[in-house]
Amino acid sequence: MDKYKVILVDDEAEVIDVIEQKIAWNELGFEVVGSATNGVKALELVEKTQPDVVITDIKMPYMDGLELSKRLNDDYRNIHIIIFTGFDEFEYAKEAIRIEVEEYILKPIDAGELQELFGRIKKSLDKEIDEKRNIDKLQEYYMESLPLLQEHFFTSLFEGRVPAEEIDKYLVNYQIHLCGPLYLVTILHLSSSDVKAYSNPFLMTVSVKKLAEEQLVPKYGSRTLIYLGDIIGISQLETADQVAGYTDMMDEFCRQAKRVCGIRVTAGVGQLCSSVEELKLSYQGARNAVSYRALYGNNRAINIAEIEPKEKSEETWEEEALHRIMKQIRLGDKSALEGEVKDCLKKFTENGST
User: Fold this and answer.
1) Does the global pTM surpass 0.90?
2) Burial level of 197, CB count in 10 A (0-12/13-18/19+)?
3) What is the mean pLDDT of residues 333-339?
4) Do 195 and 298 meet the contact criterion of CB atoms below 8 Å apart?
5) What are phi and psi of 85, to 5 degrees?
6) What is the tens place of the pLDDT at every residue in 200-239?
């Protein structure tokens, strides 16, 4: 392990020489990296050498030891300070304690006392290093885990398992920056029959994800993750007018995925929302949009807002009936579909429609 660095500060050069000679620095785990005759020169030396310990006299020209200690405490909180002086006055001792120096020692300096003091400082420095390394390890582990933590947050949010009052806390803790002001979720569903043609389906999913990031991140600040075999994109829009252009872009992306990756992709676009909390609704809308691929095709973008209007009350009964029929076709429930068709024909007959 490297030695801890020490700087000696005293306006009497012979005092510095005596201290250097009296202490077995190497055995204690220290090395003297420099000396100065006043506080001004000491600060320059501190900036240059970044010492762990500074031993300073109190009475010196230009800048005394107390002022030097104050400056060190302000700018270099990690430096241990030892003050020694021949002035055995209580006021000096009080001031040294107030500015949180490590020790206050009177001249003439006793080598045994100073050696014992540096033994204590060595233990203190070792403890600080161990604690810092532990913190660094935790920080390193945290940064390595961050992508997984972020994905877990979003999947929990989609499933409605994140309390609304805790969302902001998770966004901060997991370093998730979503500025909006509007958001929508897109699900990229890869055709299972195409995926099976590859020896490693997961790598194919990763390839499509990378392609999506290249398209979405620069323009919409999107975040992407793989969930339940699909690629989920969370995009940020500035205005509702951008939704049409976004859907067109995703439509083109599906064609590009077919050309580049050789796989059919359905992009289910969820409804626009104005808060992170509402992303779970947009996610569900995107999931519903993907399920319409049997009707609209599986190599295109399907915007749920275009096929399931938000305001159901404004639909005519014919539109409502058509949506119910389409839903049963989508779900593959033959008996339910027959029932919906019969109800629709009956309604047509009652209204005299042809």
Assistant:
1) no
2) exposed
3) 78
4) no
5) -160, 160
6) 888 889 999 999 999 999 999 999 999 988 999 999 999 9
What stretch of H or E contains 336? helix 334-350
Total Cβ atoms within 10 A of residue 138: 10
- In this structure, how many other beta carbons lie within 10 angstroms of the beta carbon of residue 173? 13
**How many other C-beta atoms are found inside a 10 Å radius of the C-beta of residue 9?**
28
pLDDT in tens, 7-48: 999 988 888 888 888 888 998 999 999 999 999 999 999 999
Q: Cα separation of 13 and 25, whole Å?
A: 18
pLDDT of residue 23: 85
Q: Residue holding tokens 């999947």?
A: 155
Tell me how far apart the alpha carbons of residues 69 and 275 are, in angstroms, rounded to a whole number: 51
pLDDT greater than 60 at residue 315:
no
130: number of Cβ within 10 Å: 10
Is pLDDT at 344 greater than 50 in this prediction?
Answer: yes
84 membership: H or E segment, kind and range: strand 80-85
Query: Using CB atoms within 10 A of its CB, is residue 284 exposed (0-12), middle (13-18) or buried (19+)?
Result: middle
Can you name the residues that pair with 330 across neighbouring β-strands?
A: none
Strands 265-269 and 301-303: parallel
97 φ/ψ angles, rounded to the nearest 5 degrees? -65, -40
